[in-house]
Write a structure and sequence with these properties.
It is rod-shaped, with a radius of gyration of 40 Å. It is an alpha/beta fold and about 500 residues long. Helices cover about 60% and strands about 20% of the residues. It folds into 4 domains: about 240 residues, Up-down Bundle (Alpha-lytic protease prodomain-like); about 70 residues, 2-Layer Sandwich (Alpha-Beta Plaits), CATH 3.30.70.1350; about 70 residues, Cation efflux protein, cytoplasmic domain (Alpha-Beta Plaits, 2-Layer Sandwich), CATH 3.30.70.1350; about 80 residues, 2-Layer Sandwich (Alpha-Beta Plaits). Helix 4 packs antiparallel against helix 7 and helix 12 crosses helix 13.
Length: about 500
């Protein structure tokens, strides 16, 4: 049932995302498909011309190039189909998108190149050994076609490389690399064919084998190209991390304030999109909100290295090694989703005694609340064994909004309290006195101005003593809240 609920939401989110990016996606898809289609049309024309002149001249070099171009035609068709599929947005079944299709396309192209190489080597060896004697007739048409092929390969390689770099397309980049090496292999074939022509014209018999030797050199070029493509495509299909990026990402994450360690960093690529998954250690006392801020900073740092990457950060609590006893006590409470306050530690004859205040749901019974405190105290002693005893003051945590009447001014009550304020030289003045009556009880709050340089510990002591004196001077007060302000505060 959970899956059935989540999948439509996931599809809706992905559809909304694709709609928002529609203009950008359309531009990218249009450019990638256009250059792939042009490459396909060029491959059709070149393959047809090479095949004709190869058959007419019986040149193995040209026939090998025709076979090479024929596989280029298949590769160009696969590339065109792959860029059409890979640009589809992620969906419920393909949550990482369809980018792997481009990597698979490049893998197929690698296999086709190797098949071409096997045939060329086999036929060249047969001719060199004299098992398959062929009379080659170099013609002007053969040279024209080969030079035309080199010009077309240069043109489409350049176009493919520009679009491949712009959109980080591995399929188009593979095609561009492929066609750039075709220029070299075509040049070798032209050289071999030229040497055959020279041999026939000047009666140099051994030059008749230049065409087969040229074919072997073409196969060497194909093996070189295939090995480069094979390594890159296999790495992509096996989710190999891009070289050097993991270290850069880990170093960038460790520079962010609050990150203690990077336990794991994984990077994968699908088409032109990167996905990064990091597990980072944060101080166990940081708040959930602060951890979210740190995660956001890490995400931005990763995307500076891998633009547009999909980043997932998993944060885990870690002990910093510089925690004092108060931090360790609060860490245990936080681990149990409690917040303790007014923690005090006394060293009594070498034994540490801890006192703390803990707020629990006001609807709990005393027994249930006491059971919670017992478990918490035992866990604190387990984590901080140097503590001998713990005393916890249980307070009720309000869970309801109380209704009451606000009394803006009570001159009689204020008159009672003013002499009390004068007993404390640290208090410069008292203002914004507010009195509320809730369920028959009187709540009083006020702002007290104190010196900017007064230590916070002394501010707390003065506020506590002042609250006690207020209640002594006006016993009708149920609760007193004092808000201390520095003298430079301009908001009062």
């Amino acid at each position: 049932m959970v899956t059935g609920v989540l999948e439509p939401k996931l599809e809706t989110m992905m559809n909304v995302s694709s709609i928002e990016l529609n203009p950008v996606l359309e531009s990218m898809q249009r450019e990638k498909r256009t250059v792939a289609l042009n490459s396909l049309l060029a491959a059709i024309a070149i393959t047809f011309l090479k095949l004709i002149v190869g058959i007419s001249t019986r040149s193995l070099g040209i026939l090998s190039e025709a076979a090479h171009s024929g596989l280029d035609l298949v590769a160009a068709l696969v590339t065109l189909l792959s860029v059409r599929v890979s640009d589809k947005p992620a969906d419920a079944e393909h949550q990482y998108g369809h980018g792997k299709v481009e990597n698979f396309s490049a893998f197929i192209e690698t296999g086709l190149l190797l098949l071409t190489c096997v045939w060329i080597v086999w036929e060249a060896v047969r001719r060199l050994n004299g098992h398959h004697s062929v009379h080659i007739e170099p013609t002007l048409a053969a040279f024209v076609v080969m030079f035309l092929s080199m010009v077309v390969d240069w043109w489409r390689s350049r176009k493919l490389q520009v679009i491949a770099k712009r959109y980080d397309s591995q399929a188009l980049e593979a095609d561009a690399l492929h066609f750039s090496t075709d220029i070299v292999s075509s040049g070798v074939v032209v050289l071999g064919l030229g040497l055959v022509w020279v041999g026939q014209r000047w009666q140099v018999a051994w030059l008749a084998k230049a065409d087969a030797v040229a074919a072997l050199l073409v196969s060497v070029v194909i093996v070189y190209v295939s090995s480069r493509l094979a390594r890159r495509t296999i790495d992509a299909l096996l989710d190999a991390a891009p070289a050097g990026y993991r270290g850069r990402i880990v170093n960038a994450a460790l520079k962010i304030n609050g990150v203690i360690e990077v336990e794991r960093a994984r990077i994968r690529r699908a088409g032109n999109r990167y996905f990064a998954d990091l597990t980072v250690g944060l101080a166990r006392n940081v708040t959930f909100q602060r951890s979210g801020q740190v995660v956001g900073e890490i995400t931005r740092a990763v995307q500076e290295i891998l633009p547009d990457a999909d980043v997932v950060i998993h944060s885990i609590p870690r002990e910093t090694g510089h925690e004092n006893i108060f931090d360790r006590i609060r860490a245990v409470a936080s681990r149990n989703n409690f917040s303790v306050h007014d923690v005090s530690v006394q060293d009594l004859g070498g034994r540490l005694h801890v006192e703390q205040h803990l707020e629990l749901d006001e609807n709990l019974s005393l027994k249930d609340a006491h059971d919670v405190v017992t478990v918490l105290e035992a866990e604190i002693r387990g984590d901080v064994p140097e503590i001998s005893t713990i005393l916890t003051h249980i307070e009720s945590e309000p869970s309801t909004i109380e209704s009451g009447n606000t009394v803006v001014r009570d001159a009689v009550l204020e008159q009672k309290l003013k002499p009390v304020v004068q007993e404390f030289p640290e208090v410069v003045d008292m203002h914004d006195v507010e009195i509320k009556r809730v369920r028959g009880k009187i709540y009083m709050s006020c702002h007290c101005t104190m010196s900017d340089e007064l230590p916070l510990s002394r501010v707390h002591d003065v506020s506590t003593e002042l609250e006690i004196r207020f209640k002594q001077a006006a016993p009708e007060l149920f609760k007193v809240l004092i808000h201390p302000e520095p003298q430079t505060d301009n908001r009062r």
